[in-house]
Each structure stands twice: as structure tokens, then as C-alpha cells.
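[audit] Reproducing an earlier prediction to check determinism. Same input, same settings, fresh worker. If the C-alpha cells differ from the archived copy the diff job will pick it up downstream; this log only records the rerun itself.
[audit] input (94 residues):
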Amino acid sequence: MSVYQEIVRQDAAIPELLGGLPAEHSVTFTSPDETDLMRLQVQGALPLPAVGDVIELHRSEVVVTDLTTRYSRDGTTGRPLVHTAVAVRELDVP
């Protein structure tokens, strides 16, 4: 079975979206040693930085080094689930 067929098979096994539920989006920010720094979870979508962007986490500037997003659905409600992992590192100090 191809990867595409497997995606279609798994998605078809989940019920249709009930009542137009908004996506649930979580974003986890991690340090270079993979320590979780902060996690945000909302109904709807959060804006995402790009690799190389300088962002602030609790008033501390960091640079984004990697970004991975996973998409799925809740097996009971069909609600879209989105999880993004954002790796960051300290800014270089001159």
C-alpha cells in the first residue's frame, strides 16, 4: 500500500467533521537540548514563524532553527488537529 493510500484509508475511518468544529492547534517551542520552553494551544490557528525568524518567548528573543507541523483528526469528532514543533536557540551575542 502506498503512503497516499494509507493516508486516505486512515482519514476515511474518521467520522465527518461534526458541526464545523474549528481546528485545535498547539505549538511547542523547544531549546537545542529538546527542553520544552513553552506550549500554546488554541481553537483555531496560530501564526507560525519561519526558520531564521527572530521571535520573542516571554520577552526573550530567540531565533527559529527548525519547524515541523503534523496534521490529523480527532477520531471521535473529526476535529482537525494541528501540532507544530518549533526549535529555537539563543541569539548570537556580539
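[audit] rerun output stored. Observation attached for the diff report: Strands lie at 24-30, 36-43, 54-57, 60-73, 80-90.
[audit] end
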